[in-house]
Amino acid sequence: MANPSKTLELQILDREYRINCPDGAEEKLRDAARYLNEKMSEIKNAGSSAGKVLGTDRVAVIAALNIAHQLRELEAEHQQMKRDLDKMHSAIDEALEQNLQLEL
Predict the structure, then answer these.
(1) How far is CA 11 from the centre of its chain?
(2) Which of 10, 22, 23, 43 has the fewest Cβ atoms surrounding its Cβ within 10 A?
(3) Helix residue spans in the chain (DSSP H)
(4) What average pLDDT does the segment 11-16 reach?
(5) pTM, two decimal places
């Protein structure tokens, strides 16, 4: 049986989009749409301030690239934290092993 879905109406850069959404994920999708709208608005406003008229497609691509870049940076940070935690676990395990040997 397939997961039921709902259709949400989302506003991004003053345009309405109807998006299918898995049941129970509505708020997360709305939050993602708000975030995307904020990022796209920032890019559009920055272009306008510089005297440029950026098309919606260009704004969307720049926003997507910025968000993808942020995601990749967070993934790299996550991997580094994981490596650091693995080193700490190894050091703790080694210290516990040495302590156990000293007690014997």
Answers:
(1) 19
(2) 23
(3) 26-49, 56-103
(4) 95
(5) 0.77
